[in-house]
Amino acid sequence: TKKEVNCQSKDLKSVPSGIPADTKSLDLKYNAFTQLPSNAFQGLTKLTFLNLEYNQLQALAADVFHPLTELKTLGFTNNRLSSLPLGVFDRLGKLQTITLYSNQFDCSNCTILYLSDWIGQNANKVKRAAGSDYINDPDGVTCSDGKVV
């Protein structure tokens, strides 16, 4: 059975405790997250879908997604990320889809190089939503000055 937890639009600032360990889909869209600490998804090793779109995320711990080795879809659209920590996506070996557009990536800072290189190597996974589906759009990830990351 597909275990889904929907926590959309709950004004959450942190990942709620008590999410069952066998949860596969976790929807945290439309909340008030500004950061994700290292242990945010601890124990949720079965997750295949994680939606963090439409939050106010500005900072991620470099190892926040390391437990999520089964993750296939990761949504980050419409946050306030200006950079991503080195290695943050490196353990997501099963990732098929990631949405990163509508953030505030700072391309004047050399920390953007990790993301830029990662997108270059994983361009087929960088998508945007089109209705209920996703379409490939690696060039849709732009800097705060409008340039492509």
TrEMBL record:
It comes from the Eukaryota. It is a single-pass membrane protein. This is VLRA. Pfam families: LRR_8. Keywords: Glycoprotein, Leucine-rich repeat, Membrane, Repeat, Signal, Transmembrane, Transmembrane helix. It is found in: Membrane. GO terms for biological process: signal transduction. GO terms for molecular function: signaling receptor activity. GO terms for cellular component: plasma membrane. Its main location: membrane. InterPro entries: Leu-rich_rpt, Leu-rich_rpt_typical-subtyp, LRR_dom_sf. SMART domains: LRR_TYP.
